Amino acid sequence: MTAHEAVLLAVRWRREPPAHLLDSRERQLLDGVPGWQRRQWIASRLTARAAIAVLTGSLSGCAVLRGPDRLPAVPGWRLSLSHSGLWAACAAAPDGSLAGVDVQIPVPDMARIVRRVCGPAERALSSPLRHWCLKEAAFKACRGGAALGRFVVQEGRPALVRAQAHDVTLRGWTRWVDLPGPDGQVMVAVALSLDQRPRMVIADDAAVLRLLAIVGRRPAASAVG
Known about the structure:
There is one protein chain. By secondary structure, this protein is α+β, with helices and mostly antiparallel strands. The chain has a single domain (5-217), classed as CATH 3.90.470.20. Helices cover 28% and strands 31% of the residues. It has 5 helices and 11 strands. The strands form 3 sheets. A 5-stranded antiparallel sheet has the order 6-10-9-8-7, with helices on one face. A hairpin with a 4-residue loop joins strand 8 and strand 9 (168-178). Helix 2 crosses helix 5 (205-217). The protein starts with a strand and ends in an 8-residue tail after the last helix.
C-alpha cells in the first residue's frame, strides 16, 4: 500500500448484518445503540472492517471504536461512514489525511433540496444528487465545522470541492449504482486530500462476509475486490 491510497467501499446489506462478527469492544458500544439504529450501526462497522481489509489484506486491529471526537475510529486510519436504506459505505485512508463518504438513495425533489446549500455558480450542475453527495462527503472529510453551503463544488472527473471555512480543497469522485431489487439505485461519493486517489468498490453483503471470513482466517492474505 502506498501513502496516497484510499478506498471507498459501498455495500448493499440485503440480509441482517451478523452482530457476532463484531469485536467484543464493538459489541459493548452496540449495547448503547437504540434498536432502530442497530442494523445500520452493525452494517457500517462490518463495512469499515472490510474496507481496511481491501487495502491491507488484514483484520488486525480493525475494531471500529470511538476516537477523541467520538466519531468512529480505527488506529492508523481516517474513517468516514455513511448509510442510506440498505446501503452502508466507508471511506478509509491513512491517518493524517482527509477522507469523507456519502451514500444516498434518490429522494423526491432533490434539486430543490440542493438549491438550499448551493451558490449561484453551482445551481446549473447536471446532477443534483451527485452534487449533494460531493458536498456531504467533503463535509464529513473535514469533520463538519461549517454549513454545507460553505463547501463549493467545481464539476469535473474528479470534481474539486473547496471547503471555505477550512481553507482546504478536496478531490471528489462519485459512482452511480443501478442494481435490480430493493434500494438498487444509489449514488456514492468520496472526498479525499488532493494527493490521494480512491479504489472504489461496490459489493453485496455475501461478498463482504466472504472477504471477512477469508481475511480473518489468513491475516496475510491479499484482499480481493
